Amino acid sequence: MASESYAAVLHGAKDLRLTKRPISAPGPGQAQIAVKATGLCGSDLHYYIHGKNGDFVLRDPMALGHESAGIIAAVGEGVTNFKVGDRVAIEAGVYCGECRLCKTGRYNLCPKMRFASSAKVYPHADGTLQSLFNHPASSLHKLPDNVTFEEASLVEPLSVVLHASRRAHVTAGQSVLVLGAGAVGLLACAVAAAHGATHFVIVDINKDRVDFAVSEGFADAGHVLPMGPRPANSAESLDAAKKMATEILAKYARPDSDGFDVVFECTGVETCMQASCHMARPGGKVVFIGMGTPNATLPVSAAAFREVDLLGVFRYANTYPDALELFGSGKLPNVAKLVTHRVPLDKVNDAFEALLKGKGEDGKMIMKLMVGDY
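and the corresponding C-alpha cells:
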C-alpha cells in the first residue's frame, strides 16, 4: 500500500504547491482512492485567486478540488461493498447522519457538513486534487461500465443542477431559460432535456460560450448580453434587469407564453437575479444556483403577484445514483463535450493559470478543465 501522495495544496492567494506528503491507510469505514480525474470549478478558482471563496477564508494550507473520480486502491476495516480496483465517483461532502436534516434526507444542509476543499469548516477539509485520497466508503459510488472517469467527475456539478431540477419539478414539454453559459448552465440544459423539457434558451456575456452551447446542442437559442459597467446602485440594477427581461422575452419566449416555465439563474450576478424574476411565466419557477451576490435586492412583487416561486439551491443530496444512471443510460449525449482541456497533476499551476485566462495553451476557450492522470 502506498504511503505517500501528491496533493495540490493552497497556502494563500496564487500560492499553490504540489506537495509530496504521507498518507495513512484508510481508517474503519473508509476507502483509499487513486484519483484519476478532477474537474476544476469556480470555487477552486476563487480560492486560487483570492485565498478565499466568499466568506470562507483560508486559514491553513488546504488541498483543492472536489469534482473527482478514481479507482479504489485500498479499503479500511468494515468496508464490504467495495473492493480494490472498483471505479468510483467521489461525493465530496461528509455529513453527520444524526441531525434532523440528515435524517429527513436533506444532508446537504447538515450544520456539521465537512465538504472537501471548503474553508467553511476549521480545520479545513482537504480536497480531492491529490493522487491518493481517503474518504468514507458511504460517500463513494460505483461507476457503470460505460461511464468514464471524466464523466464521473462531472457528476458533482451535474448533481447541483439535478438537485435544482428536482426543486423546480421540471417536466416534459416545459420551456427553460438559463442565465450563465458555463459548465453548470449547460448541465442545467442537459438535465432539463433529460426530463423532457423542449425549449431552451441560454444567456451570457461571453459570445464564445453562448455559441458553444447552441452549436453543441445544449440550447435552441442563445442571447449575448452587451458588456458594460455594472449598475451603480440597486435602482439602476432593477431598471437594467427589467429592460433585459423585456428584450429576452420578446425575442425568445414561446408565443402567448408570458415567460418561461423554469429559469435557472447560474451567474449570481444581481441584475441577472433580478431579471429572472420577470422572465418566469405566471406560476413559473426561478432557481438560484449562482452564488455571486451575497445580499441581492430582488423585485419580489414581480414574483409574488404572479405566484412565481423563488427557490434556493445549496449543493445537492441523494443525487449521485441518479446522475450516474443518466450518464450510463445515454440520456446526456453531449455532456462529455464539456471537457475541453486536460492537464496532468504535476502541471496543476498551469491549469489554474489557464483557467484564470479562460483559454488553454491551444488558444481555445476553456469550458471544463480536468486535472488528472494524463
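(Above: one complete record from the training split.) The longest strand covers residues 30-39.
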